[in-house]
C-alpha cells in the first residue's frame, strides 16, 4: 500500500476508531485516560509522516486522495494538504495527548463521555484541515461544533456553563447556516464541490458574471469564519466559552479553524473580494489587538484574562493575513501555530492552579513562588513566549506581521502598524502583572490556607514539550517557514480579477489589488 495516498485518511480516522472503542469499553479506573492517551499518541506519530515526506518547492496539494463519493450531486472524498494545512494537522496531533495528560485527574466523572467527545473533536479538526471537497469540508465544520458545545455544557466549572455553551452554539451555528447557502451557490455556478477545480475556474475569472452575487457569497463565507476565529467585534461568545470550557477543550477552541478557513476558502475562492474588504479587516485586526489587550489588563479572573489575551493574539493574525504581503501571510500562518502552542501552555498552567486551589480569582492567590517553584518557572517562560520575547516562538510571527503591515499598500499608511505595535506593550503589561500578582504578591486567602504540591511527573511531561517548542520555533523558525512560505507566496501573488465587461466601475474596484501586487 502506498502510505502517502492513504495517510490523511489514517490520521483522520484513528481518533474516530479510538472514540468508538472507548465508547464500547467499561468506564473503570484509569482505562479511559490510558485509552485516549494511546489513541492520541498514535495519531500524533502518524501526523509526523507529513513533514517527513513533504516535497518542498512544488505547488499544489500533496498526499492527495480523491475518490468519487456521490455522482449526483457531484461530491468527492477528496483529501490533501499543502504548506498551509500540513503543520496545522501536526499541531492538532501534538496538542491532543497534552490535553489528555492535563485532564487526567480533573475529569473524574463521566470520563467516557469526555474522552469520546474529545476524540471526535480531533476527528473534526483534522477533517477540516484536510478536506478539499466543499461538501465534505462543511460536514467536518459542522461536526466540530457539536463535541465542543457538549463539552462546555457538561464539563463547565460553574452553573453558567449551559448558557456559555448555548451562546457558543448560536454564534457558530447561525453563520454556518449562511455558509451553507454560500457553498450551494458556488456549486450552482461550477457544478462541483471540488476545491482545486473551483480554484482553477476562479483563476479564469468565470465563477459568476454577477458581482453582487459574488459579494454576497464571499460575505457568507467570511462571516462564518470570522465568528469562529473570532474577529473583533464578533467575539461575544469567547470569554464565557473559555471561562467555562475544560482545559483540554480550551486548548483547541479558538482561532485555528476559522483562520485556516479564511486563508483556504475566502482567499482561494473569492480573492478579489478578499482584497477589497482587506482594509476593513486590517482596521478590525488593529482595533482588536488593542481592545483585547486593554480588557485583559482589567481582569481579576485568570481565564477571562487569557480569553481577552487570545482575542488580541488572534487579531494580530487577522491583521497579518489581510495585508496580502508575503511577510504578513507567512507571519500570520506561523503565528497560528506559535500562538496555539503558547496558549495551550498558558491554559494548562492556569488549569493546574485551579486544580490545586479551586479558583481562577487572582485576588485569592498570591505569594505562590516559594510554594510552587516549578509552576512559577513554567509560568514565567510561557509569559515571555506570549509577550513575544526575541528568541522565542511568538516573536517570529509578530515581527513578520508588523513588517508585512508596514509594507502593505492595502493599509495605505503606517497607522495600523503603529496601533498594532502597542499590543506588544499591552501583552507585556497584562502577562507580567498577572505573574507578579499570582506568584510574588501578598498571600491571598486561598494560597495562605491551602497546602498543595508542585508539578508531578505527568504534568512535567505535558508542559516540557511546549517549552521546547517555544525555543525551537524561535531559533529555528525556517524549519516551519519553509513550507508555510509556499502557501504565503501563492496567496500574496494571487492576481486581481479581469475587469468586468458589464460596468466600467468594476475596473476601478480592482485597481487597489493591482497596486498591492506591485507593492509587494
From TrEMBL:
Bilayer topology annotation: Multi-pass membrane protein
Top-level taxonomy: Bacteria, Pseudomonadati, Acidobacteriota, Terriglobia, Terriglobales
Protein name as catalogued: NADH dehydrogenase subunit M
InterPro entries (alphabetical): NADH4_N, NADH_Q_OxRdtase_chainM/4, NADH_UbQ_OxRdtase, ND/Mrp_TM
Family under the similarity heading: Belongs to the complex I subunit 4 family.
Alphabetized UniProt keyword annotations: Membrane, NAD, Translocase, Transmembrane, Transmembrane helix
GO CC annotation: endomembrane system; membrane
Locations listed in the record: Endomembrane system; Membrane
NADH:ubiquinone oxidoreductase chain 4 N-terminal domain sequence ranges: 71-124
Amino acid at each position: 500500500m502506498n502510505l502517502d495516498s492513504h495517510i490523511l485518511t489514517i490520521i483522520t480516522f484513528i481518533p474516530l476508531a479510538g472514540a468508538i472503542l472507548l465508547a464500547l469499553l467499561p468506564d473503570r479506573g484509569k482505562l479511559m485516560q490510558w485509552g485516549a492517551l494511546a489513541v492520541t499518541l498514535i495519531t500524533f506519530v502518524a501526523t509526523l509522516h507529513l513533514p517527513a515526506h513533504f516535497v518542498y518547492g512544488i505547488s499544489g496539494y500533496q498526499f492527495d486522495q480523491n475518490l468519487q463519493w456521490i455522482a449526483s450531486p457531484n461530491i468527492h472524498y477528496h483529501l490533501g494538504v499543502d504548506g498551509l494545512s500540513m503543520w496545522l494537522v501536526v499541531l492538532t496531533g501534538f496538542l491532543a495527548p497534552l490535553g489528555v495528560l492535563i485532564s487526567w485527574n480533573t475529569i473524574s466523572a463521566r470520563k467516557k463521555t469526555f474522552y469520546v467527545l474529545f476524540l471526535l473533536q480531533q476527528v473534526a479538526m483534522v477533517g477540516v484541515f484536510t478536506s478539499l471537497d466543499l461538501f465534505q469540508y462543511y460536514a467536518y465544520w459542522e461536526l466540530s461544533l457539536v463535541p465542543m458545545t457538549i463539552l462546555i455544557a457538561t464539563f463547565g466549572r460553574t452553573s453558567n456553563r449551559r448558557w456559555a455553551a448555548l451562546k457558543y452554539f448560536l454564534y457558530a451555528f447561525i453563520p454556518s447556516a449562511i455558509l451553507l447557502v454560500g457553498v450551494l451557490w458556488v456549486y450552482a455556478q461550477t457544478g462541483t464541490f471540488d476545491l482545486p477545480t473551483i480554484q482553477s475556474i476562479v483563476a479564469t475569472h468565470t465563477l459568476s458574471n454577477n458581482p453582487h452575487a459574488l459579494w454576497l457569497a464571499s460575505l457568507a463565507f467570511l462571516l462564518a469564519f470570522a465568528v469562529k476565529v473570532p474577529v473583533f467585534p464578533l467575539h461575544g461568545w469567547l470569554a464565557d466559552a473559555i471561562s467555562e470550557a475544560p482545559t483540554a477543550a480550551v486548548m483547541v477552541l479558538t482561532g485555528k479553524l476559522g483562520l485556516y478557513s479564511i486563508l483556504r476558502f475566502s482567499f482561494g475562492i473569492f480573492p478579489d473580494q478578499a482584497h477589497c474588504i482587506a482594509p476593513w479587516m486590517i482596521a478590525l485586526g488593529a482595533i482588536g489587538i488593542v481592545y483585547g489587550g486593554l480588557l485583559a489588563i482589567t481582569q481579576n479572573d485568570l481565564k477571562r484574562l487569557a480569553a481577552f489575551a487570545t482575542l488580541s493574539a488572534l487579531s494580530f493574525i487577522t491583521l497579518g493575513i489581510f495585508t496580502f504581503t508575503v511577510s504578513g501571510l507567512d507571519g500570520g500562518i506561523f503565528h497560528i501555530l506559535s500562538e496555539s502552542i503558547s496558549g495551550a501552555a498558558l491554559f494548562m498552567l492556569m488549569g493546574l492552579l485551579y486544580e490545586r486551589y479551586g479558583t481562577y480569582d487572582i485576588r485569592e492567590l498570591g505569594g505562590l513562588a516559594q510554594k510552587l517553584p516549578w509552576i512559577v518557572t513554567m509560568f514565567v517562560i510561557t509569559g515571555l513566549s506570549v509577550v513575544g520575547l526575541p528568541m522565542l516562538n511568538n516573536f517570529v510571527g509578530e515581527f513578520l506581521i508588523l513588517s508585512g503591515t508596514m509594507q502593505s499598500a492595502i493599509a495605505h499608511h503606517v497607522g495600523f502598524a503603529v496601533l498594532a505595535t502597542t499590543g506588544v506593550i499591552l501583552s507585556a503589561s497584562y502577562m507580567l502583572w498577572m505573574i507578579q500578582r499570582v506568584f510574588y504578591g501578598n498571600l491571598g486567602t486561598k494560597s495562605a490556607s491551602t497546602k498543595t504540591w508542585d508539578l508531578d511527573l505527568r504534568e512535567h511531561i505535558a508542559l516540557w514539550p511546549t517549552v521546547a517548542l517555544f525555543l525551537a520555533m524561535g531559533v529555528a523558525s525556517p524549519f516551519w517557514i519553509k513550507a508555510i512560505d509556499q502557501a504565503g507566496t501563492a496567496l500574496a501573488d494571487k492576481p486581481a480579477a479581469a475587469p468586468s465587461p458589464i460596468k466600467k466601475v468594476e475596473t476601478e474596484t480592482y485597481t487597489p489589488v493591482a497596486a498591492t501586487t506591485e507593492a509587494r
